[in-house]
Amino acid sequence: MAAAAQACFGTDEWPRDVPVPQASIEFEVPDVAEAAEELKSKGYRLIHDARTEPWMQVTARLLSPEGLLVAVCYTPAFHDAS
């Protein structure tokens, strides 16, 4: 849980006022900012907007009503042509 809290909130503690996720899943998308905007337009509340992680993956995350931590992401290493 500490890793998820660190990724979402920058702290090792999951916030008491946010339900603890039961599982997590990531979806690789070509444009994280666009995917995040689409999710918001559908009524989802993001934990955080698109941002670049220290390992260069771009992510945006939300907590689904079912308790699933969902990330839309773009991982440059997956798309490196070399």
Domain count, please report it.
1
Do you know the CATH architecture? Roll
Stretches where pLDDT is under 50 for at least 5 consecutive residues are none
Count of individual helical segments = 2
Strand content: 25-35%
- How many strands, which pairing sense, and closed or not: the largest β-sheet? 4 strands, mixed
**Could you state the CATH homologous superfamily?**
2,3-Dihydroxybiphenyl 1,2-Dioxygenase, domain 1
What is the overall pLDDT average?
A: 91
CATH topology: 2,3-Dihydroxybiphenyl 1,2-Dioxygenase, domain 1
Strand order of the largest sheet: 1-4-3-2
Q: Which word captures the global form? A: globular
The sequence of SSEs as H and E is HEHEEE
The first-level CATH class name: Alpha Beta
Distance between the termini: 35 Å
Structural class: alpha+beta
Radius of gyration: 13 Å
Number of DSSP E strands:
4
| Share in helix | 10-25%
